[in-house]
Amino acid sequence: MRTLVVGAGALGGLVAARLHASGRRVSIATRDAESASRLRVSGLKGSGVGGEALIGSPDVAPLDAWRGAGGFDLVLLATKAHDAIRVAPVLTALLGPGGFLLPIQNGDVARMIADQVGEGLVLGGLSNLGATMTAPGSYEQRNAGHLLVGELAGGESVRAERMRAWFGAAVEARVTQNIRGAVWAKLLLNCSVTTIGAIAARTMREYIGLPEGRALFDRAYSEALAVALASGIRPARMIVDSVPPGWTGRTVPGDAHEAWLREVVRAYGDVKPSMLQDFERHRTTEIDFINGHVVDIGRTVGVDTPANEAIVHTVQAISHGDIAPGPEVLARVLTLRRGPLS
Fold first, then answer.
1. Among 75, 262, 282, 322, whose Cα sits 20 to 30 Å from the Cα of 313?
2. Residue-range definition of the domain harbouring residue 303
3. What whole-number distance in Å separates Cα of residue 214 and Cα of residue 297?
């Protein structure tokens, strides 16, 4: 399959390096000519879990340079969510007969893109690969995660199985018949583990021991779960069942819940939140596609989401430089959730 990876950040760069090292035909589209030039000089290097992958001369060019190229069987979107939605209509012109887009962003981005360009041109996907860009062209894989693909409408498909086989030689890939349930399962964790860790400037293991951190986790997670269920989506099982033991619309304290939470911490507790890295690098966050998406859908289905609204408000304040991330911010968020946000 002729493949174009759009985005050479941590995830896109790692996948491109591993695909290329496995003998796959891969090209890379970067944001601009300067980024492409740096990658030509540095090459690609994958390391960490999964072993080393060294690529000396990657086929890389800025996205604009690929216009008119056409003939791609697969375009993997590994950009930020807002960039993926913006460029998706342009990328369809690069597809050959039977080709399709595979977005792997956080949130329900694949559904949003399919609403733009048509479901036949989009395969749903998400990534549980933990990757960090340590330098331009150098990517470290920090867990034994996988790519998950599936049809947005559910069920089996030949192209999903093709994706599993195509990626399988490079990174672990799996097929699901409930990709939207899987997307929401990850979204629940992004709304709690990732964004709370970012505003606290701590890993989950560090912030969950704080009373304010634990309270905010429980509230944000329960709200997001209530929105998913009210939308008719049953989040899939990831590391743990997405519905905590005894959950009745809110967290039910007890030994079963503590055991459930320990499993979440064991899986994600030591990962540096990607949104915290966005703060540090002054990059646009994906908050509108994570907690913000939960807030938007909550309004549609009639579920109140004050904790998630407060998190959105706080992330925006940090992004604007009004406040700095840190553990003391958690108490501020809990105070904000007492009333509606402007």
1. 262
2. 181-336
3. 24
